[in-house]
Amino acid sequence: MGWNSWNTFGAHIDETLILQTADVLLETGLAEAGYRYVVIDDLWEGKERDAQGRLTADPHKFPSGIAALAERIHAKGLKFGIYSCAGTHTCADQLASYGHEETDARTFADWGVDFLKYDFCNVPHGAHGPTLYRRMGQALRQTGRDILFSACEWGVNKPWLWGRWAGCHMWRTTGDIVDNWDSIKDIGFRRQAGLELYAGPNGWNDPDMMVVGMYGKGNVGAGGCSDSEYLCHFALWCLLASPLMIGCDVRAMNDATLSLLANPGLLRISQDSLGVQARRIAPEKDEWDWSDFPVFAKPLADGTIAVGLFNLSDGDGCNRMGVAWETLGLDTHRACLVSDAISGETIGEFRGSYSERVPKHDARVLLLTPVLG
User: Do 287 and 279 meet the contact criterion of CB atoms below 8 Å apart?
Assistant: First the structure.
């Protein structure tokens, strides 16, 4: 959980922005809610390596240097992240880590880096992608510093199959998200099917950083979304046990965005210690089929089951959606207490199934607690 500069700011980053963002995470309570990583994405780099072959920071954007910035972030009780790439140059054509993995890993550790996002642009022809990630994973381990390794490989070589072995703690499963409804539907609802088999503690599928609260502004702004569409986006990322990296400008977010990102019921589902990624359970079709009315379920460590009802249709009005106990592994005669995970309100006790009407481009997230006895 944290914040990354790319979605909103792209190249327009500097140490003032990063420090202001860290302060807002603290002031708004987002840090207390769990958002503790402050990550600089691409275009922080200087034009040349130094005499020892180490990466340098752009002196105009980061005049105090990266180590000093990391120290100030740490002094606020937060963690600091940075970006590099497995190729010869980054996606924005800056110096990257190919052939310099051990030097760069040591540099990051010496600077006090806690998180490395590692991209996949400008890889030499014939280079084996998984091997490049293993190189950096090994180099990071050799430093002795606890650095979260985020593989931004876009799913090209199916990193869910080898990411853990390469030392990655999270791996991108798709290309980049943009701030519109079609992108959220494609990346979140269509492209994650079947990947729940590979997620769990210390190794997570990553459908990319969030666009919640961007409203079409910024580096990946592409029309924006409504508040209910952002709710679908955030609720699904929580059910999928995805990393939660905020992409909006938290200095300018509205109350709806803050309330959603800090929602305790959804964050409870996201951060549950069992670490199971939700899977689609209904409608009762082949799980690889596409539907405008997907239902996802996620078992939680305390025996509660989280269920997401998503209405992705473009039709008018509301559609009735529900969940049958038998799809959750519950006896059809078992009584369950149903509550609204977002509002925290208790809905009531039901047997066999539960349904309600869900507006278009909206979601309901339920908590089902079996009643014993």
Answer: yes
